[in-house]
Fold:
Amino acid sequence: MELTAVFKKVPEGYIAWVEELPGANTQGATLSEARENLVEAIEMTFRANHDLSGTPVPEEFSLKEKISLVAA
Structure:
């Protein structure tokens, strides 16, 4: 699965979201922190979607992905 992460510079640091995954958004003081937080937001969104669909999430849930970045 390949997702598109978008990072926007704001006075407080960076905000980030995934175009293809509504609800996966976050922020960070640095670009690196925003990237790390976005991976966590993606995991949380996938878990919530699984929970809402009634599909059990495996105990050892892992996330492996490629994220395309849009250069500004």
About this structure: The chain has a mean pLDDT of 84. The chain has one domain: 2-69. The CA atoms of residues 13 and 50 lie 31 Å apart.
